Amino acid sequence: MLKNKQQYAQITAIGGYLPTQKRTNADLERLSDTSDEWIIKRTGIKERRILEDGLATSDMAVAAIQELCTSYQKKARDIDAILIATSSPDMPMPSTANIVCEKLQLSNVWAFDLNAACSGFLYALDMGAALVETGRYKNVVVVGADKISSFVDRTDRSTNILFGDGAGAVWLEPSPETGILDALLLSDGKGVDYLNIKGGGTQYPYDATDWNAEHRYLKQDGKVVFKKAVTAMSTACKELLQKNNLSIEDVHWLVAHQANKRIIDAVGKELGIEEQKALNNITYSGNTIAATIPLCIWEFKHQIKKGDLLLLTAFGAGFSWGASLLQWNI
Ligand code: ACO
User: Whole domain around residue 86: which residue ranges?
Assistant: First the structure.
């Protein structure tokens, strides 16, 4: 592999958090006209985790960072930048990253949120890596966190089957050797009508007297999203590999956004990667939006070896999509 940077950003620690409360397929059978058999066949999902009322996205981000600190003997007070990828911030203002700083008692930290829907973690990872590569920041924490259950109508079978809550975090530090190698991140506006949460922003502000319930929840055209997700993720992966003179045989692990097991399988097939190299943890956590990729790596961290090449790929609302290449260093 060509060494093309003076300084790399390395992932030196990873953490995760999944709420304890489960929403199983049996629960969904009681809430809507669906069946365990249909959900498993069409999505591969058996249950999702739901954060309890009264807690917010920042609580899961904090829990993921704390789990990381405990597992890798890191100290939160050493963090000098926090990027939170989320589409479900605690509130419009201030950023969830600021609230996380308060909960971790951090000050003088460069902290903000980034919204690129399900591609958010890859966007934030690329930005965090750039901060480290410039030498300006040395301990950058990148989090993907979403309490998407707040925006999912639990009685709507077209969406309730897919989504769950969670958070994953990585710690980035500089290294002259290797680490995050390259990324290709793209977006357009063609997906606005196919995947959205319309209400609560400036176009359809929340109004207690005139609130359109339709705008409150996540809506999607599942078929359009499915097809576009497979094409966009596999094309981005192929282009990124080609740009780096690599082939799919060089990749030890493919970590695709955990949207639907059939989407993950289709991307793996299109890329021609061996099935056991395409990681998935969707069965027991569902689609956790910006958290799926760090949570999936976290779950398989004992299988991934130092030096392994990881190909990450995501697709989300916007549309937004892309791929990242990194060498694992833990
Ligand atoms: N339970 C039982 N039957 C259902 C359900 C359900 N939950 N949902 C739909 N059906 C029925 C339909 O009415 C239809 O019946 P019909 O044949 O009699 O008309 C039949 O099942 C097939 O419905 P489809 O909508 O064609 O099912 P499909 O195979 O497309 O699966 C799904 C739907 C699971 C939503 C799929 O399209 C999908 O996963 N799309 C991608 C969605 C996604 O990943 N979104 C997020 C990605 S980006 C991000 O993470 C923000």
Answer: 8-176
pLDDT at position 2 over 60:
no
Q: Which atom of ligand 1 is nearest to the CA of 317?
A: 51
Residue 56 to residue 76: CA distance in whole angstroms:
20
Q: What is the pTM (predicted TM-score) of this model?
A: 0.97
Residue 50 pLDDT exceeds 70: yes
Among residues 176, 193, 226, the one where a domain terminates is 176
Q: Are 102 and 112 in contact (CB under 8 A)?
A: no
Residue nearest to atom 48 of ligand 1 (CA): 316
* Per annotation, catalytic residue among 25, 101, 237, 257: 257
Structural domain count of the chain: 2
Residues 103 and 202 in one domain: no
Does 257 qualify as catalytic in the annotation?
yes
Can you tell me the distance from the alpha carbon of 292 to that of 168, in angstroms, rounded to the nearest whole number? 8
Q: Which of 178, 183, 210 is CA-nearest to residue 307?
A: 178
β partners of residue 180? 326
Share of the chain above pLDDT 90, in %: 94
Name every protein residue with a CB atom under 6 angstroms from any ligand 1 atom: 34, 38, 42-43, 117-118, 157-158, 161-162, 195, 220, 222-223, 225-226, 229, 259-260, 287, 289, 315-317
Catalytic choice (101, 118, 237, 296)? 118
Q: Partners of 322 in the beta sheet?
A: 185, 314
The ligand 1 atom nearest the CA atom of 289: 50
Q: Are residues 269 and 206 in the same domain?
A: yes
DSSP string for residues in 71-136: HHT--GGG--EEEEE-SS-SSSSS-HHHHHHHHTT--S-EEEEE--GGGHHHHHHHHHHHHHHTTS
The span from the first CA to the last CA of the chain, in angstroms, equals: 19
Give dist(CA 301, CA 229) in Å, integer.
25
